[in-house]
Specification:
There is one protein chain. The protein is of the alpha+beta class. It is 43% helix and 12% strand. It has 3 helices and 3 strands. The N and C termini lie far apart (25 Å).
Length: 94
């Protein structure tokens, strides 16, 4: 089981972390409660060709949003614990 701390895996300026947070929330809101997004969609929107480098931070911020009750993390269509899941995940607004 992977444990996350409040510290980001890759250092980001506070404004960058907030931009990722807002991008996730906007994208899941646009998709609605019946559909989900892949975290890589947010990474590609923000990071362009360097999107892969953002994935650890996006997953960690997604975990924080799930902890806050803003989104759910899904794996294979079922709600999953973001601290225990490995492999592909999706986000859905609550």
């Amino acid at each position: 089981m992977t444990e996350f701390s409040d510290e980001l895996i890759i250092p980001l300026a506070e404004k960058d972390a907030e931009a990722i947070r807002q991008a996730i929330l906007e994208k899941v809101a646009q998709r609605g409660t019946m559909k989900s997004i892949c975290p890589s969609e947010v990474a590609r929107d923000i990071g362009g060709e360097g999107w892969r480098q953002l994935m650890p931070a996006i997953r960690q911020i997604g975990t924080a949003l799930a902890d806050e009750g803003k989104i759910v993390v899904l794996q294979k269509g079922a709600i999953a614990n973001p601290r225990q899941v490995k492999g592909p995940i999706r986000y859905r607004i609550i």
